[in-house]
Amino acid sequence: MITEHENINRMNMVIRNICIDIMEGKEVPISDLYGIIDFIRNYADKHHHGKEEKYLFPKMIEKMGVIAEKLITNGMLVEHDLGRSHVMALEVSLKEYEKHPTPELKLDVITEAMGYAHLLQIHTEKESNVVYPFSEKNLSTEDFSDINEKSTEFENNQSQIGIQEKYLSFLKSMEEKYQR
Ligand SMILES: [Fe+2]
Ligand SMILES: [Fe+2]
């Protein structure tokens, strides 16, 4: 899960580099940004947040009481939803920009892309440094073997349809293309 945070943040760095390029006058790389939206939705959200929302968080809420429930419900889940709304707004801005390439729409693209990247950077740091260690301290070995068993099954299903391979190679290609 921590490695997935690192991968998500590698893509956040790509997004940042793309936004700087745009500010310096380069064309908005529309099809790459659609590819990044696909990465965010299927890797960062469905694959990574999926495991948190289906396996880890429910177990924390079930076993760790009110503090965990507040942290998850008012913190982590709200941030997952905020991320989704940035991505939806980014997609809308991109579609509009394709029809009317105005500076205002270009600004909307940068705003939503950076809004997402910034949010996810803070979110993943909070999980890696606070939420995951908190769960490690308070959940039992049995709780973790239950979470791991379900996660492994999910991972295997995802791997059979080539999800990890597809998105990690896309990440690598974007990193190579958008270095600064
Ligand atoms: Fe999360
Ligand atoms: Fe996470």
Protein described:
The longest helix is centred in the middle third of the chain and has 70 residues, at 30-99. The mean pLDDT is 97. The chain has one domain (2-177): nmb1532 protein domain like (Four Helix Bundle (Hemerythrin (Met), subunit A)). With 180 residues, it is mostly helical. It contains five helices and no strands. Helix 1 runs parallel beside helix 5. It has helices at 2-23, 30-99, 103-138, 141-160, 163-177. The chain binds fe (ii) ion (2 copies). One fe (ii) ion binds at residues 5, 48, 52, 124, 127. One fe (ii) ion binds at residues 49, 52, 76, 80, 123, 127.
Produce a short descriptive summary.
The protein is mainly α. The protein has helices at about 1-25, 30-100, 105-140, 140-160, 165-175. The longest helix has about 70 residues, at about 30-100.
Number of helices: 5
Q: How much helicity do the residues have?
A: over 70%
Can you tell me the number of structural domains?
1
What is the molecular shape? elongated
H and E order: HHHHH
Mean pLDDT: 97
Q: Which ions, cofactors or small ligands are bound in this entry?
A: fe (ii) ion
The second-level CATH architecture is: Up-down Bundle
